[in-house]
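User: Could you go from structure to sequence for me? I need the amino acid at each position, not a summary. Structure tokens:
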């Protein structure tokens, strides 16, 4: 989820792949970057990932948006392709 590797999601188990919304449960590895990202600690958080808004992007049929929600929090991270 981050280009520098400080936020990754593993162990994704998908349902609904190819439908209007695909969902997965997985494990998010997030670096707290405290006191810095180089010296921070990785925390593992169970998350639900949702892919949606299907369309064409650079000639390919893709899910254009994703949302990541920790299992135990209301926080929701969302991103769509430009």
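Assistant: Here is the amino acid at each position, in order:
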């Amino acid at each position: 989820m981050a280009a520098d590797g400080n936020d990754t999601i593993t162990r994704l188990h998908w349902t609904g792949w190819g439908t209007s919304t695909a969902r997965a449960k997985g494990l998010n590895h997030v670096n707290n970057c405290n006191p810095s990202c180089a010296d921070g600690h990785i925390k593992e958080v169970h998350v639900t990932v949702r892919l949606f808004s299907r369309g064409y992007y650079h000639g390919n049929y893709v899910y254009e948006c994703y949302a990541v929600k920790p299992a135990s929090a209301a926080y929701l991270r969302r991103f769509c392709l430009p």
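One structural detail worth keeping in mind: The beta strands are 7-15, 22-31, 42-57, 60-70, 77-80.
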